[in-house]
Write a structure and sequence with these properties.
With 226 residues, the protein is an alpha/beta fold. It contains eleven helices and five strands.
Length: 226
């Protein structure tokens, strides 16, 4: 059973999500929070597997709550799905850096919402091509920082893993990476998993950030995202 926590300051939205989620045999709602502070407290107490987290909440917002959850070693297994009004939410970059595993728009189809919870619960990132594009745009627009450190930061990766990371940063799925590199989808997935372990990345979303921040990939080298 996947344990879900709902964090949104609008009671009506929480109620709607609760009815939908509890109708699924493999999901259960273990708590509701009206702000980020309460969300963090409930995650600690209820040991939720997945948190549906609204960003804009009074007091401690969803971004800070996500950061606090990600920072606690005891909560390493908790996955956060950010709820946004639009996929191009201005906080996409910050939320991924804070530790979010994915994004959902609030008008997502019911079946897609339930599947998203399952996807994130099993450790995969929920990052659609449009969100990836937004993330890359945000990164490209940021002021130039220190010189790229790909040589040192990524030194733990093999040449093949660096190649795979570059494609992940371009927004390609495991299947697309497999086709591009003439690998099986399982082999591509294994490469991605090993890269995440070596770089201590929580999920695929953070690999996109790392690919650009280390200079392995630059905005002008973006891989076409379908």
């Amino acid at each position: 059973m996947i344990r879900v926590l709902l964090a949104d300051d609008q009671a009506l939205i929480r109620a709607g999500f609760r009815v939908l989620i509890e109708a699924a045999a493999d999901l259960e709602v273990v708590g509701e929070a009206a702000d980020g502070r309460q969300a963090v407290e409930l995650v600690r107490r209820e040991r939720a597997d997945v948190v549906l987290m609204d960003i804009r909440m009074p007091g401690v917002d969803g971004l800070e709550a996500t950061r606090r959850i990600a920072a606690e070693e005891d909560l390493a297994g908790v996955k956060v799905i950010i709820l946004t009004t639009f996929e191009t939410d201005e906080y996409v970059f910050q939320a991924i850096r804070a530790g979010a595993s994915g994004f959902l728009v609030k008008d997502t189809e019911p079946a897609d919402l339930l599947q998203a919870i399952r996807v994130v619960a099993r450790g995969d990132a929920l990052l659609s091509p449009s969100v990836t594009r937004r993330l890359i745009t945000d990164l490209a627009a940021r002021p130039a920082g220190p010189a790229p450190t790909a040589g040192t930061a990524l030194s733990v990766l093999t040449d093949r893993e660096r190649e795979v990371l570059a494609l992940v940063a371009g927004g390609l799925s495991n299947e697309e990476i497999a086709a591009r590199l003439y690998l099986s989808p399982l082999t591509a997935k294994t490469h991605v998993s090993r890269i995440m372990t070596k770089l201590s990345a929580r999920d695929r979303a953070q690999l996109v950030v790392l690919g650009y921040e280390t200079g392995l990939v630059t905005p002008g080298q973006q891989t076409q995202i379908s």
